[in-house]
Amino acid sequence: MRPIITGFLDHDGTLSFDEQIELVNKHKLSSICLRQYNQKPLIELKDGEIKKMIASLKEQKIKVAIIDTNNRSFDIYDDRKHDETLDEFKYMVKLSDKLKVTHLFFKLPKFNNVIEEYETIEKRLTPFIDVATRHNKKIILLPVNSYKANIYAYILKKMKTNILSVAFDPVAIMLNNEPTTTAYRMLKKKIGAFMTVDADHQGVPKLIGYGKTDIIPLFKKLLRDRYSGYLLIDNKFKQTVFKPEPIKQGFFKKLFSVEKKKIENQLNDLSKKIFPNEETKNVTYDDILENQIKVLKVIFK
Q1: 8 A C-beta contact, residue 129 and residue 164
Q2: Strands (E) located in 112-163
Q3: What is the C-alpha to C-alpha distance for residues 87 and 262, in angstroms, rounded to an integer?
Q4: Is 77 left (phi over 0), alpha (psi -120 to 50) or beta?
Q5: H/E stretch holding 167
Q6: Backbone dihedral region of 203: left (phi > 0), alpha (psi from -120 to 50 degrees) or beta?
């Protein structure tokens, strides 16, 4: 099986559900990831909103690939927070049943030493795994708290369950000062979702292959290992080069001017790469999204 190209497509929470669906259809995707509905967290939805969402997905013949539980990374020794998070997780699992989705994003709790505190970590995670198992769900662990790849590898190996996997984010790994190819080697058998993002060493987003994450060699490894999970296309360009221009006041005008110039240079560079034969064309976020999807479709054809 080929990997599935998908994403939240919510522009960092600013788009409505209908606008997300429009993007799915425009870019000819078969599935979407969800963390909210019309700027409202999924856990806060009323029955009518859930029914309307399900009806729309059915009408458009779009599947939900992953839902984000949006859980907060609680202190591993906080019983109350653990119980609250577990209750919320149970609700999200029931919602995933209604949406006919198997995979859920989840963040690990906060701890200091994975080896010394492993028994407590296992004790905290087991109830979530039990709930997921009863409902035939899979949990994909999101990068959080700057945990290194070896921490996730240690937990996944010790837990000995096929319920848990990890979301591989090459940018997050690089910014953790880890070689992404080494991290891949440790986690390759447990990757449930792969973030198709690239960036420079300062975290500035770049088009696939133009950053410093070694993402192209990683793609080659995914192909070699016959990866069939999810490829998430959400990137950081919306939060950087396409972010709303702030109101300039007094002393900060000069700072804003420098920032604006930097963004203009980034946009010019993106335009040249995406439209090399159209010097006067200005790139949009949707142009970037379309370009990155095309790149993935060529690589994983």
Answers
A1: yes
A2: 138-142
A3: 45
A4: alpha
A5: strand 164-168
A6: left
CB 182 within 8 A of CB 214: no
Q: Would you state the pLDDT for residue 256?
A: 59
> What would the two tokens of residue 68 be?
């984000």
* Exposure string over 157-186, b if 16+ CB within 10 A, otherwise e: eebeeebbbbbbbbbbbbbeebebeebbeb
Q: Which amino acid is at 301?
A: K
State the pLDDT at residue 150. Answer: 97
| Cβ-Cβ contacts under 8 Å for 196 (sequence gap 6 or more) | 208, 215, 231, 232, 233, 235, 292, 296
Identify the pLDDT of residue 141: 98
- Spell out, as residue ranges, where the chain has pLDDT lower than 70: 244-256
| Nearest alpha carbon to residue 230 among 2, 4, 29 | 4
| Rounded to 5°, angle at Cα 166 from 120 and 213 | 125
* pLDDT, tens digit, 9 for 90 and up, residues 182-191: 999 999 999 9
- Which residues is 107 bridged to in the sheet? 142
Kindly state the helix (H) or strand (E) to which residue 31 belongs, with its residue range. strand 31-34
Distance CA(106)–CA(124), nearest Å, equals: 13
What phi, psi does 35 have (nearest 5°)? -135, -10
Owner of token pair 């190996």: 157
**Beta-carbon neighbour count of residue 225 at 10 Å?**
12
What residue type is assigned to position 214 of the chain? Answer: D
Radius of gyration of the chain (CA): 20
d(CA 154, CA 28): 38
Q: CA separation (Å) from 235 to 12, 190, 261?
A: 9, 22, 21
- Residue 101 CB-density burial (10 A; 0-12 exposed, 13-18 middle, 19+ buried): buried
Structural domains of the chain ordered from first start:
4-235+285-299 (3.20.20.150)
Crossing angle of helices 149-159 and 118-134, rounded to 10° = 60
Look up residue 61 and give its DSSP letter.
Answer: T
Give the integer Cα–Cα distance in Å for 31 and 4. 8
